[in-house]
Amino acid sequence: MRRQRPVLGRRPLIMLLLALLVVLFLGGMWLLSTLNLRQAEETLASLRQRQIVDTFHANIDRIDAHHRRMEQNSRDLARAGRLLTEMGAGEAALAETLTQALEEFPDARGATLWLTALDPPRALYARRSEAGVTATPLDTDWQEAGWFQRRLAAWREGEGQPYWSTTYFKAAVDDAVISVAAPVLDDDGRLLGMAASDWVAEDIIGLMAGVEVTPSTFAFLVDRENRNLSSLARAEDLADAGRRIDAVSALGLHREIVALAAEEGPVRRPLTLEGEAWTLYLGATRAGMAFGIAVPQAEVDAVLAPMRRVNRRLLIGIGLAMALLAGVTLFLVAGLLRQLRTLYTDPLTRLPNRARLLADLEAGRAGTLVLVNVDGFKQFNDLFGHRCGDRVIQHVAERLEEALAAAPWRGSRLYRMPGDEHALWLPGAPSDEALRERVEALSQALHGLRLAWRGQELPLQLTLGVASSWQLDRQGDREESLHSSANIALKQARAERRSFAFYDPATRVRRDYERNLAWANRLGQALDEGRVVAYFQPILDLGSGRVGKFECLVRMLDEAGEPVSPGAFLEVARRSRLYRRLTLTMVERCLAALAETPHDVSLNLSSEDILDPEISEALLARVAEQGVGERLIFEILESEGIDNYAAVSDFIARAKALGVRIAIDDFGSGYSNFEHLLRLDVDLLKIDGSLVRQLDGSGDAESLIRGIVGFARELGIATVAEFVHSEAVLARVRALGVDHAQGACIGMPGPEPRWTGLPD
């Protein structure tokens, strides 16, 4: 058949557009080349600016990290001083403690410990030198230092924060130092003394000497008294360094420390030194000092010189680029067209994909579309992982390709559809009988398909939905698309548990709509008249042989008082506004039964119920009010999937706080996922009846149930087997170690939570 090519078929138009773009590009190249230099300079300047800012942040963070270590060392020393005071330690113990503290903290050059609460008061100073760490007593005169006296009053009022001094000369080390002091306080906040760590000027200058932006860049620290410590102290030209230091000091940055501390990023400020333009990057450290980096603007601009040379060479290369442009463009277009072809190919099976199918169907040619669906595909993903699911898709595709090689299907085409579906396109218009024979033969060829996966044989069941374009034309259904018609046939086949079905417009939407409307009216009337009731099915404890639990099931009584199965009206309720009302009615029926029976009762809840606050809040409020949480079980309908784990987990936590137990219903159904057991706090696991029903004839079902029971037992979760319909299945369930059983063999649902024993 002739296929429409929506993208590839428009190749002349694409080539024309590309030719126009080439002309525009060549004309614009001259304009762009003139703007390129300016743009490049601005971009590089911006990049350089960001690099300088990053360097500033890295260095001020490094300084602040050092300050935090110094503060912590003083605090630790203060705690040690408190312990020494409580012990009434002598001078030797103080010297040993002080020496050890300084040896273990190489960032400090000296340390002081002053303890006034000792009798007599003691003050020792330890200093680091080439000979090691030595501790010596201090005279009391040092207490008259200005910064110490100013801080002493605050400490005596109970303030416990470390204090950073300004730069001062310390005779003990013969150098300028900055001290960070911490008070020694007792439990009542009374001042017992002081501990301090010294940071000498040489170490400060060494810390700043590592700042590198350009060759002439220098860094500095200015304290609250405008004393300047700079990396220029190590410069070879001391006269030039002195002039720069004096220029920085003249700015009076010590008056701006508080303002700098309030800024999130560095403050930029221009500075002229000996006729040259410099830029200062300023900020405040946690020690209350102004930190700055001075960068010469000339050295920043010098970085742009290579860019200017590159742009001049670019102008020269434009002529050569024009000559090569045509060939390069054609090469790129060819590659682009090859890439476009991949848009119509499924990467897993290498088959044409859904986009390709829809494009082919737009041609309007006569033919038949067959959709092939893998039943229960999500179970393979959930139980064995997505790699197994991918292998299922590939295996089905391989088997379909083998089947299509037969004579009746020659000329057909296989497509990969989203999810677990494939599509077959058979061109032509065979008779109804001939088409049915082909579909039946294909269904038989696919029957009994199995996949070997990691030592297990996985049975694969396929369902087919068939629709013919010529059939739709003959039945006057042109407005319906062929794909949607085949999808309707597929849903019909799955609903009727048939291996295939043909699209029949006579039994489609209108009939379903009328039936749903009739059931919605009947359900609404039943709710108004109180004919929605609860039936209770016993759950047998296989260990004790007694029934201690009942499952609360919804039933609607018809006009004659006969119960109607929920399968007839529950889906209608979900698609109407009656579902919330139906759920709240069942909540009341369940809680009323708990008030009349000593047994435990379980209530089914979907994730839709849990996520509806009008249902969940009312339910939890009624359980709390009635106080029956210890005998209530919420069965979360896992077969409908759980999307919002956070909301469901919150509901479960609130329910369990009231004593309610949580069960996962339908485990092993299409939405089963072991993640539910890990993410939800589950007490019971109800094994889906679709697996239990097969126990008397399927080894695969037995293996699956044995595995479920095993991991549930390891997690401390009880298990319940549903749909135990015979004594043979009951015996198998008991042998597999399942904790509870529920089904026709135990007892059918009834209007009261009562059990009369196993049926004869």
Question: Can you lay out the helices and strands and say which pair or pack?
Answer:
Blueprint: H1 11-87, H2 91-103, E1 110-115, E2 122-129, E3 132-137, H3 146-156, E4 163-164, E5 168-170, E6 175-185, E7 191-200, H4 201-208, E8 218-222, E9 228-230, H5 238-249, H6 257-261, E10 267-273, E11 276-284, E12 290-296, H7 297-301, H8 305-342, H9 354-361, E13 367-374, H10 377-384, H11 386-404, E14 413-416, E15 421-427, H12 432-446, E16 450-453, E17 456-459, E18 462-468, H13 469-474, H14 482-495, E19 500-502, H15 509-528, E20 532-541, E21 547-557, E22 563-564, H16 570-574, H17 579-596, E23 600-605, H18 607-611, H19 613-626, E24 632-637, H20 645-657, E25 661-667, H21 674-679, E26 684-687, H22 689-692, H23 699-714, E27 718-721, H24 727-735, E28 740-741
Helix pairs in contact: 1-2, 1-8, 10-11, 17-19
Walkthrough of the structure:
Helices cover 46% and strands 22% of the residues. The protein has 760 residues and is of the alpha+beta class. It has four domains: 80 residues, no CATH class; 255 residues, PAS domain (Beta-Lactamase, 2-Layer Sandwich), CATH 3.30.450.20; 151 residues, Alpha-Beta Plaits (2-Layer Sandwich), CATH 3.30.70.270; 228 residues, EAL domain (TIM Barrel), CATH 3.20.20.450. An eight-stranded mixed beta barrel has the order 20-21-23-24-25-26-27-28, surrounded by five helices. Strands 1, 2, 3, 4, 5, 6 and 7 form a seven-stranded antiparallel β-sheet that branches. A hairpin with a 5-residue loop joins strand 20 and strand 21. Helix 1 packs antiparallel against helix 2, helix 10 runs antiparallel to helix 11 and helix 17 runs parallel beside helix 19. It is flat. 34% of the residues are buried. GO terms for molecular function: cyclic-guanylate-specific phosphodiesterase activity. It comes from Halomonas shengliensis. Keywords: Membrane, Transmembrane, Transmembrane helix. This is Diguanylate cyclase (GGDEF) domain-containing protein. It holds the Pfam family GGDEF.
